[in-house]
Design brief:
With 207 residues, the chain is of the alpha/beta class. It has one domain: P-loop containing nucleotide triphosphate hydrolases (Rossmann fold, 3-Layer(aba) Sandwich), CATH 3.40.50.300. 45% of the residues lie in helices and 19% in strands. A five-stranded parallel sheet has the order 2-7-1-8-9, with helices on both faces. Helix 6 runs antiparallel to helix 7. Belongs to the guanylate kinase family.
């Protein structure tokens, strides 16, 4: 019996997985892609059980849901990946990715290392990119400058970052590792890594 669900999931442009510690600059780089290549990229909006921060919008920054709703969806197999951080659940639903791919856009997924491993068990076949801060010291300064973290949460993020920065070196996990020590240089490297897929979508859109 043919798996039509799997076939549909494979339709559309190849997605891009952006991973790296909070504060490495993933969101900034993704926004630059979206601005330069309008009609080429789309952002997969993740789900979370945490409360919105000031200025964040439901459906744009995250889908804010209750723990019960999210767990029920995960149990039904509706999520590609999910994780718990600082007591809050985060995850990427299949529907949010497919919604982007259905528009013939390259779907950008901003996910953690646990999520990366989960995606590797699916048929998404994305391009895996790791965005790395120049050092843990610089990462700590960036996180403190945000003023959005409690001290406990900040220390947890730094501990997780240290582990991730070791795991990312393992062969076969990421297609490219970009050290974000200069935003313009990091962005140029990111574009180069994705240019083949970008040109494919541009060609389809212009035909």
């Amino acid at each position: 019996m043919r798996d039509y669900t799997k076939e549909k999931a494979m339709a559309g442009p190849r997605p891009v997985v952006l991973s790296g510690p909070s504060g490495a600059g993933k969101s900034t780089l993704a926004k630059k892609l979206l601005e330069e290549y309008k009609g080429i990229f789309g952002f997969s909006v993740s789900h979370t059980t945490r409360n919105p921060r000031s200025g964040e919008e439901n459906g744009k920054d995250y889908h804010y849901v209750t723990r019960e709703v999210m767990q029920d969806s995960i149990d039904k197999g509706e999520f590609i990946e999910s994780a718990v951080f600082s007591g809050n659940m985060y995850g990427t639903s299949k529907a949010s990715v497919q919604a982007v791919k259905d528009k013939n856009l390259i779907c950008i997924l901003d996910i953690d290392m646990q999520g990366v491993r989960a995606v590797k068990t699916t048929d998404l076949n994305p391009i895996y990119v790791y965005i790395q801060p120049p050092s843990l010291t610089i990462l700590e300064k960036r996180l403190r400058d945000r003023k959005t973290e409690s001290e406990e949460s900040l220390q947890k993020r730094l501990e997780a970052a240290q582990v991730d920065m070791e795991i990312c070196k393992e062969p076969g996990i990421f297609d490219i590792i970009i050290v974000n020590d200069d935003l313009d240089n990091a962005y140029a490297k990111l574009k180069q890594a994705l240019i083949e897929e970008i040109e494919k979508v541009q060609k389809i859109n212009s035909s």
